[in-house]
Design goal:
With 354 residues, this protein is an alpha+beta fold. Among the domains are: 22-51; 58-200 and 249-295, no CATH class. It is 20% helix and 26% strand. It has helices at residues 2-47, 113-122, 124-133, 141-146, and strands at 58-62, 92-95, 102-103, 149-153, 157-165, 168-176, 181-184, 190-193, 198-201, 210-215, 219-223, 226-230, 234-239, 244-246, 259-262, 270-274, 281-285, 294-295, 343-344, 350-351. A 9-stranded mixed sheet has the order 3-4-7-8-9-5-6-1-14. It has a 3-stranded antiparallel sheet with strand order 16-17-18, with no helix packed on it. Strands 2-15 form a two-stranded parallel ribbon.
């Protein structure tokens, strides 16, 4: 009986030990699977396992007469045009004052600046967000918009568009189709998409993937009594992958034909626009809406002659002056002068006068 109990006890003890080992092996196996799977996932994420979108930007295509999260009701502030685009063989950067960069119709405007101001003032939330995008305050909207110039894009143009969603402005990397009506500032940069009132900023650049390294060799320059040593700093610039374009594509769309507009180096007083229908150029003074357009071949206006003011200050004593005298004639009455002469005789001797 005692032996039987011993045998039974031994059997029970052996079974328990085997069960514990099995559980431990299962736990270890689960840990290995979980940890191993996590490593695989981590490597997949780190190496960009999806292959297509790692490091790439998404850029939305915006055809004419379309709007993404519009600030204003579409079509209320402006209307786009259907034009034949100016195309390039590669993305091109152009200053905002370049002749022919923008188009338009002479004596006409595709944007209603007054309507834009009215809408933003009547909708203060949109107004505040619109102004903030452009570095302004809501109170500055009327004066700021007054200085903008309505134009039309002549080429597909990259911008940072801003939609209005959940009460705030949301940036959208976009390419606007040629024919889109825009308001531009005094440096020639598009700041508003007129069809929907969305504020615009310059685009974010996404050059091809790669890296460039510039190394400066150590240089020592000695100027008596000063010695300056330049070490070898290294600058490495990393680039992102080309963007992924999405959205409706227009027939002329090409990802190689994109214009990037940069700030003009000087203030633009007169924009030289091109009529996309006729190809003719005309002048549009900054801040005007077509009322003061003139042909580019028109003779310059003669400036008005200034009218002297009664309050004009007198020149200082140090200022050179010119005095003109009228010619005059002085006439003296004829006179007779008698000189006293002594009397002489025949021998030339002085004698009393008779």
């Amino acid at each position: 009986m005692a032996q039987s109990s011993a045998v039974t006890g031994g059997t029970e003890s052996s079974g328990t030990g085997s069960s514990d080992k099995t559980r431990k092996l299962l736990i270890i196996l689960i840990i290995v699977i979980v940890v191993g799977g996590g490593i695989v996932v981590a490597l997949f994420v780190f190496l960009g396992g999806d292959g297509d979108s790692a490091g790439a930007a998404e850029v939305r295509l915006e055809p004419i007469s379309s709007a993404t999260d519009p600030f204003a009701p579409p079509g209320q502030v402006g209307q786009d045009l259907s034009v034949t685009p100016v195309q390039t063989s590669a993305p091109t950067t152009v200053e905002g004052g370049k002749v022919g960069l923008y188009g338009g119709t002479m004596n006409s405007s595709q944007c209603d600046k007054n309507q834009l101001v009215t809408f933003l003032q009547q909708n203060p939330t949109q107004g505040a967000e619109w102004a903030k995008v452009l570095g302004r305050t809501a109170a500055e909207i009327p004066s700021y918009v007054e200085g903008l110039t309505p134009t039309v894009l002549r080429s597909d143009t990259a911008v940072t568009n801003h939609g209005f969603k959940n009460g705030q402005a949301t940036p959208i990397q976009s390419v606007l189709q040629a024919g889109t009506a825009v308001l531009v500032d005094d440096k020639g940069v598009p700041v508003t998409k007129c069809y929907c009132g969305n504020p615009l900023q310059p685009p974010v650049y996404y050059p091809p993937t790669g890296a460039t390294t510039t190394t400066y060799n150590p240089t020592t320059t000695t100027y008596n009594p000063t010695t300056t040593t330049y070490y070898n700093p290294t600058t490495t610039t990393y680039y992102y992958e080309p963007p992924t374009y999405y959205g409706p594509k227009w027939p002329e769309w090409k990802d190689t034909s994109i214009t990037i507009i940069q700030i003009n180096i000087t203030v633009i007083n007169v924009f030289v626009l091109t009529d996309p229908m006729t190809g003719q150029t005309f002048n549009r003074p900054r801040g005007t809406d077509g009322t003061f357009d003139t042909p580019t071949d028109a003779p310059p206006e003669t400036p008005p002659t200034p009218t002297p003011s009664s309050n004009t200050p007198r020149p200082s004593s140090n200022t050179p002056t010119t005095t003109t005298f009228s010619p005059t004639t002085t006439t003296f009455s004829p006179t007779t002068t008698t000189f006293f002469e002594p009397c002489v005789d025949e021998n030339n001797n002085i004698v009393p006068c008779p």
